[in-house]
Specification:
The complex is a heterodimer of chains A (243) and B (524). Chain A has 243 residues and is of the alpha+beta class. Chain A has helices spanning 2-31, 33-36, 52-56, 63-69, 83-101, 112-115, 120-128, 146-149, 152-160, 218-223, 229-239; strands spanning 169-173, 179-187, 191-196, 201-205, 210-213. In chain A, strands 4-3-2-1-5 form a five-stranded antiparallel β-sheet, with no helix packed on it. Chain A is elongated and about 90 Å long. The mean pLDDT of chain A is 93. Chain B is mainly beta. In chain B, 4% of the residues lie in helices and 39% in strands. In chain B, the strands form nine sheets. Chain B has a five-stranded mixed β-sheet, with no helix packed on it. The chains are: A alpha+beta (243), B mainly beta (524). At the A-B interface, helix 3, helix 5, helix 9 and helix 11 of A face strand 27, strand 28 and strand 33 of B.
Chain lengths: 243, 524
């Protein structure tokens, strides 16, 4: 029972902590936003997200005295706020600093509406026309439901650079004229290695054999210098309809 | 003469003798002004940044027989530093750590480990040396002076506040009685600067800020109102070069902040993404040139400003050349910054041309946007911190160039802070290019394979070019044609730039491959 109460209290404390920046945002807006902007990026007063004092603050040790005492020489009044309110504002400011630090996060949670600037009809026309997508792909075949398969950001990126569907098929011709088909393992200036049809690993010095790689993504690579951004966004808008 | 006095004199003589012996292991300042042969006393080997060695024991006729002289296993993260070599000792680094090892045998002399520290541990480029002292920057942006004899720390000063987002990776540069140290950090909107400290005491001599003070020349390239200019970034994270005759220091500066958010800082944003010439005694700006005005793609212009004297347009000139991260090669007159040449060294899609001052003109529609914009090169750059090289025998400038296709996203909804977005690479491959400095023409091209190579380049009077490919091979190429003369799979990627020295009549080439240093030489 005691264990349960301890756990419950800890959960309650954690919940209260999570709520602190939310409360702090409201309180900041009311007490500080007029000068520092509701998002703390500055207005008549300085940007607090960039403030060295805020960045060096630990749990309010630097921010709280400024709120309590103000900075009369710089026109900031002392604010008669409770300690709890000040702590909430401190939590909000730390959250804002964290958001700036994470502003480089671009991932699977990237919002669809930010990407959806294209025209699906124009995308369909490009798919069937200039883009030559239809020569390999079909909206009712391999691409059916593609928009359900990938987060919007990854769909946009995979249109341009799909993941290879496995190792590229390769044919090696030996000096004796023997042709060996397989799946490419490694190819550089000096060596070629593959898995042959029986699954065994084989390698050769590059200079002694003829190598022919059939890269299924070559057409995608070739397109990279041809797309306009409008083509990309139209194509994305079209494929996004394939749910 | 009484016995006591004699004893004192003998004691003094012994003390003097031991000091002389100690100094004999230190760095003779004259070595900094010589082409590197038995000594490699600074990050780039000498002040010119050419990474060209006059050594020629290893040459195009015998490079095929190169063999392993020794290997040193640091059991560390990847070595990105270029070792110094002074009086038979190599000094090299990874973040927080410095090693001194025997340049003849690869045996450890000492190892220094700074404390576990805050700050980005992305990599470390090496140390600088003045007399008996080494200078080492830490991830939390301290500058530490070590005794080269035993790795003992003599002093430790704070260059910048890690809590504000600064960190440090670079090898400082010693010029006269100045230790010149730069800083890193663009996750937060903080000003870049270059600092000079006294080599004996660490006392600050001057500090040059990348952004001018509001009202000073250059400040007109920032918005008049607001705080953009005081939070404008422009880190100084690669070692610069120096011309002793002109007594000018040349340094590249990094991207402006917020990194991808141009509208928050309309204007050219001087002196970010610039090559600046500074007086090393005062830190006063002599001239500047900006490879990427108003950068919105993280294209730091910190790549080595390489110095050489050569004919340009039919007359001899003191030149400075940079292959910049934005994909363009620039040649300037280093006496006054006069622009002489701009030429692409790789395909790009972000410019509409070159302006009257030789600067690429960026396309507004290729700035990062919420819906993603396809730009090449990506932020990793057409090249980056890996060393280029200039071979004066052939008049060719060599650069590891990358085709990096990337999509740039803009994430800010209100006032942008920090990065305000990011780019994702979707396809990349690497190539080594030999550029005719006088025309920008690509003389030859050697493909380095898929992925991004970050191996640097060394050229030598033996008509050799040392580098690595993007697939784990170390390479020796013919610098006139790009033909491969020697190669080895060293079991990892070369993430550093090669260096060379001769001791006891034997030439060594040292290359860092992930956590291992390899020394190559001809068979004994």
């Amino acid at each position: 029972m005691i264990r349960f109460i301890v756990c419950f209290c800890a959960a309650l404390a954690a919940f209260a902590q999570q709520r602190a920046p939310v409360r702090g945002q409201k309180e900041f807006g009311q007490s500080c936003g007029f000068c520092h902007g509701d998002d703390a990026t500055g207005s008549r007063g300085p940007d607090l997200v960039r403030s060295p004092l805020v960045n060096k603050d630990l749990g309010g040790d630097l921010i709280a005295p400024v709120i309590r005492n103000g900075r009369p020489d710089q026109g900031m009044p002392a604010l008669p706020l409770s300690n709890a309110t000040i702590q909430d504002i401190v939590a909000f400011l730390h959250m804002r600093v964290g958001e700036a630090a994470r502003s480089s996060h671009v991932g699977g949670d990237y919002p669809l509406e930010r990407l959806l600037t294209g025209n699906a009809d124009a995308g369909r026309a490009y798919f069937n026309g200039a883009g030559k997508c239809a020569s390999c792909h079909s909206p009712t075949g391999d691409l059916a439901g593609i928009a359900k398969k990938y987060a919007p950001l990854f769909l946009e990126e995979r249109i341009l650079a799909p993941r290879p569907p496995g190792h590229a098929p390769v044919t090696v011709t030996t000096p004796s004229g023997e042709q060996i088909d397989g799946k490419l393992d490694h190819l550089d200036e000096f060596s070629i290695s593959m898995r042959d049809a029986s699954g065994w690993y084989r390698s050769w010095p590059r200079g002694q054999v003829k190598v022919s790689v059939h890269d299924p993504l070559q057409a995608h690579h070739d397109m990279l210098t041809k797309y306009t951004d409008a083509d990309i966004h139209n194509l994305f808008a079209y494929l996004e309809t394939l749910k | 003469m009484n016995v006591n006095l004699l004893a004192k004199m003998l004691g003094c003589a012994a003390l003097y003798g031991s000091m002389a012996a100690a100094l004999a292991q230190g760095l003779d300042p004259a070595a900094l002004l010589q082409p590197p042969t038995d000594t490699w006393p600074t990050y780039n080997g000498d002040y010119t940044g050419r990474r060209y060695s006059p050594l020629k024991q290893i040459d195009s006729s015998n490079a095929k027989s190169l063999t392993l002289a020794w290997a040193f296993q640091a059991n560390s993260q990847a070595i990105k530093s270029t070792p110094l070599e002074v009086n038979g000792i190599l000094y090299f680094t990874v973040p927080e750590q410095v090693w001194a090892i025997d340049a003849r045998t690869g045996r450890q002399v000492w190892h220094y480990h700074y404390k576990k520290s805050d700050g980005d541990h992305i990599g470390h480029r090496g140390v600088a040396m003045w007399g008996n002292w080494l200078y080492f920057e830490t991830p939390d942006a301290h500058l530490i002076c070590l005794d080269a004899k035993d790795g003992h720390a003599r002093w430790d000063i704070v260059l910048a506040d890690v809590q504000l987002g600064y960190f440090a990776t670079m090898a400082p540069l010693v010029v006269g009685n100045h230790v010149i140290a730069g800083v890193s950090g663009d996750a937060t909107d903080i000003p870049g600067f270059l600092e000079s400290v006294d080599p004996e005491t660490g006392k600050q001599q001057w500090r040059w800020y990348t952004e001018p003070t509001p009202g000073e020349p250059g400040s007109e390239t920032w918005p008049k109102n607001g705080d953009a200019i005081t939070h404008g970034g422009g880190m100084t994270w690669m070692t610069g070069t120096y011309d002793p005759e002109l007594h000018l220091l040349y340094w590249g500066t990094g991207n402006p902040n917020p990194v991808l958010a141009g509208d928050a800082r309309l204007g050219d944003n001087l002196y970010t993404c610039s090559i600046v010439a500074l007086n090393p005694d005062t830190g006063k700006l002599a001239w500047s040139f900006q490879p990427s005005p108003h950068d919105t793609h993280d294209w730091d212009a910190v790549e080595t400003p390489v110095l050489f004297d050569a004919d340009f347009g039919g007359k001899p000139r003191k030149l400075l050349a940079q292959a910049s991260r934005n994909g363009f090669f620039f040649v300037l007159d280093r006496t006054n910054g006069e622009h002489l040449l701009t030429a692409p060294f790789i395909d790009t899609n972000w410019t509409s041309g070159i302006d009257g001052r030789g600067r690429p003109i960026s396309l507004k529609e290729k700035e990062p946007h919420a819906d993603g914009r396809l730009v090449y090169p990506g932020s990793d750059g057409a090249t980056n911190w890996m060393a280029p090289s200039f071979d004066p025998q052939l008049g060719l400038f060599y650069v590891v160039a990358r085709r990096v296709y990337s999509i740039f996203y803009y994430t800010a909804t209100g006032k942008p802070e920090g990065w305000a977005g990011r780019d994702h690479n979707i396809w990349e491959e690497s190539t080594l290019r030999a550029i005719d400095y006088s025309t920008g023409e690509i003389r030859w091209n050697h493909e380095l394979g898929p992925n991004q190579s970050v191996a640097g380049i060394l050229t030598t009077a033996g008509n050799l070019l040392f580098t690595g490919d993007a697939q784990g091979n170390l390479l020796v190429l013919d610098p006139a044609t790009g033909r491969t003369l020697w190669h080895v799979n060293a079991g990892g990627s070369m993430l550093s730039s090669p260096m060379t020295y001769a001791l006891d009549g034997r030439q060594y080439v040292v290359e860092g491959v992930q956590g291992v240093l390899y020394a190559w030489a001809l068979p004994e």
